[in-house]
Amino acid sequence: FAGAQNLDRIAARRLAIIVEEVVANLLEHAAHDRDIAFNLMLGPDQGGVIVTLEDDSDPFDPRTIPIADMPNAERGGGVGLALVAAWADIVSYGSEGGWNRLVLRLRQPL
Questions:
Q1: Residue 92 and residue 63: Cα distance in Å, rounded?
Q2: Are 80 and 88 in contact (CB under 8 A)?
Q3: Helix (H) or strand (E) holding 107
Q4: pTM of the model
Q5: Beta-carbon contacts of residue 43 (< 8 Å; ≥ 6 apart)
Q6: Most-buried pick from 68, 70, 76, 79 (CB within 10 A)?
Q7: Interval 4-21 mean pLDDT
Q8: pLDDT 10s digits, 26-61
Q9: pLDDT by residue (tens digit) across 62-102?
Q10: How far apart are CA 46 and CA 56, in angstroms?
Q11: List of residues 6+ apart from 107 with CB closer than 8 A
């Protein structure tokens, strides 16, 4: 996908990390020991990339939590959403009919 969109190496790596973080957070924090369904879509946007994650887990708007400055000393986590916030803009989030929809726009590296 990154090649087809002519993303440079830095943007392609950031996109991969963003996708990994949002899916990992979904599976680690929202599954609650049950199967969940999700759809991940990547698409072009004016000069960039849109990442859309739809899932049937509990609602979670990432705009409502504080961004961690440092990893959690106990388990090492906590900075994934900080990376997402550093490299992407949240275009929208909504939860309707048992499905959540998060839309991100990858920022182009400077």
A1: 10
A2: no
A3: none
A4: 0.87
A5: 49, 50, 52
A6: 79
A7: 94
A8: 988 887 788 999 999 999 988 679 999 999 998 989
A9: 888 777 666 665 666 668 888 898 999 999 999 999 999 99
A10: 29
A11: 48, 87, 88, 89
Rg (CA), the chain: 14
Residue type, 92: S
The tokens describing 79, both together, are 């900075």
Q: Which two tokens stand for residue 93?
A: 């989030």
DSSP state letters, 10-65: HHHHHHHHHHHHHHHHIIIII-TTS---EEEEEEEETTEEEEEEEESSS---GGGS
- Tokens of residue 64, six digits: 């409502």
Angle between helix axes 9-25 and 80-87 (nearest 10 degrees) is 140
Strand order in the sheet with 48-55: 38-45, 48-55, 99-106, 88-96
The token pair at 70 is 């440092």
Side chain identity at residue 85, one-letter code: A
Pairwise CA distance, residues 41 & 53, whole Å: 7
Tokens of 91: 């275009």
State the Cα–Cα distance between residues 110 and 95, nearest whole angstrom: 33
